[in-house]
Protein 1
Amino acid sequence: MEIAACPIDNELKDLPEYTTGIIKPSTRLINAGALKANGITKEQIEKGEEEKEAFEKFKNYLKSLKRGKSLPIPCGHNIDKFDLGFLFLWFAENGEDLGKYLNLDHTIDTLLRAREVWPEATNYKLGTCCQSVGISLTGAHRALNDTIANKELLKYFLQGARGLRGKAATEEKRLRKTFEF
């Protein structure tokens, strides 16, 4: 298992990234199909970071993203049906409520947005979506690589929604400055 986060602020500027590297699961069985898709070996997992330590570090990172009463909004490609399930389970296994660290009332799923923007696409894989707008994705299915590419895809969609494509984000007239991703 790996965890990565590449947050942006409301001006679409990058905030500090976070990655755990490979985490050695304390109780979970390792799915051979997932290892093959990610290119991770059992030897790498054995040398990985202890799960409890990785959890505490990630929890503290999420705390650092809180702005006043505003929690970060989770974003990802198929996040609603895939990533959030893992996070809910991981936080529950560690006696924590994910809702204390992320705004779960609002998620942004770039897979759903891609289906709206490109209804005739042959598929909606992250790599395909990124390629269609000129975003590089190398080392797909590794947490940090996918998260960096997804962040750029999210920016692409948000710039389009804000009418900023081709303009500097600083040219946007903001109605309020308190909303953050």
Protein 2
Amino acid sequence: MEIDRFKDDFGPEKIFEVYDSKTGMKGVLVIDNTWRGVSKGGIRMTPSVDVEEVFRLARTMTWKNAMADLPFGGAKSGIVADPRTITSGEKKAIVQSFSRALKPLVPSLYIAGPDVSTTEEEMKWFAEANGDKNSATGKPSSMGGLPHELGSTGFGVAQATRVAAEFSGKSLNGATIAIEGFGNVGSFVAKNLNDLGAKIVGVSDSKGCVYSEGGLEYNDIVTAKSRHGTVTAMKKAEKFDGTKLFELPVNILIPAALPDVINKSNVDKIKAKIIVEGSNIPMKPEIEEILHQRGVLVVPDFVANAGGVISSYAELKGFTKERMFQLVEEKVTANVRRTLERSKKEKVKPRDAALKIAQERVKKARKK
């Protein structure tokens, strides 16, 4: 059975694979752990998503929710489809078919949210098909939601970056930054770090990478992306294959899109001294270990990018967007400091320190 491949003392509790021949929907939900509360995690839609990837993401959500000290367990779901090759109508039919298939579990055991290729619009479709507005967070404001398009995840990653720089004795003002991905996470990371005085010198998307040693103007990146659909349309910038981004001579590298982008093929070419994981599972633990041995500070995903799930909690509590952003800053900065201080004290890599904190909280919930 699939569950036997992944199970340990923490989970997963349930794995569901669902299909619908009418719409072509093929999806998977992994409920990893519910000791702290109803499981929470987003829906991603990619042509390659599979059970193993969803489990890894669900486990990350278990730690992320515990690290953020939220009353949620960990879960994740995925729909196997290529959003670039289907119409909006086809996408809606697939998302709503997925929602109906999961209705016996949602929202009693699982609450959905946005992720790769899903936004407030997809969360609206999901909630409508389910019949319960609490079946998904990140919905449009017209449905009482706090959509992730407000930039909660990217805002939190920028705050995590600020704390990591301070911890390393470096000023964020003038620090050179490269960001993989310019979607809902990467674009807001760039905006917030730009506002904090950092210098964005490299950005990538699915079409490639742009780089300028003197810095890229944030508004120019936004204009290129909105008008031409890619950052590579920028003028006055060098253009490379997207994989080149990880090799750029920068102070801080922020993967903010796809999983496993830092791997055996490029880990030895990374020049950044700080990596803040804006995306989930951008590298496997053994790759993180290689970087740690080289003295690279890696702020793990479930600590750095918790802004989205903190926003989800704020939405369920009925908070305003102002209170939500305040909560994201408070929780992310406190947890990054706690992680880095424990890492230094115990002489372990930040991921190991953060895992100890998260596991202690999960185990405590189990005892209760």
Protein 3
Amino acid sequence: MTGFSRVIIVSIGLLLFVNPAAATEKRQWQALFAKANLAYKEARFQEAAEGYQELIGSGYGAGVLYYNLGNAYFRQDQLGRAILSYERARFFIPRDGDLDFNLRHAYLLVEDFIPESQGFESLSLFWLDSLRLDEVFWGFAILNVFFWFVLLIRLYFRADWNYYLFLVLLVFWFLAGLSFGLKWYQVGNDHRTVVVADEVNILAGPDPKDTVLFRLHAGTIAHYERSEDGWYLVTLPDGKRGWVKAEAIELVRE
């Protein structure tokens, strides 16, 4: 038996071994997803939320699961956890119309809602909010291939058409690279937190006896700075800052 034949036989054996397991796992996933959806339709929202959480905890982090989980929390009047789930869903399905509508509606119910200020970069590259990081990366990668391909052609064949094409691609290549760099930075430095408790005191220090500076309510967005002994130091978009118990808030980026 040749080495190539052995490789073919081993490959077929692996496929036969792996596929049934993958098919079984897929059926289990579909069954649990259907069970959670049925619980939601029958107004058993806590059971539905537990089902979606189990799927997410198993490594299935699709946006639809976080979106459905947010809906289940919202129907239980858990505004903070609903917003948290919606924000996590946006990493996967940033252009989903239903998600955008539900998230905007949820923010209208937040007692301490403070809109985020947008920097010059976010306003200039406005399309980034509607794209996933992997979409920006592959867009830049494809443009990169075209850019260097046209440049290579121009080195050996100079003509007006490839000169202007090169200039156009250069502009798009620069914008795509800038977009990818900024998107990568935004995702990697996303320290937003969501208040999941109904109401929480923000203190001057990481101690229950410290002065209460102000109170926040479910759904409020704050930015994590650092932690200390089960406490988080957070900053609000308007510049206010203080310490809060870690269990009262959750990071958007898990």
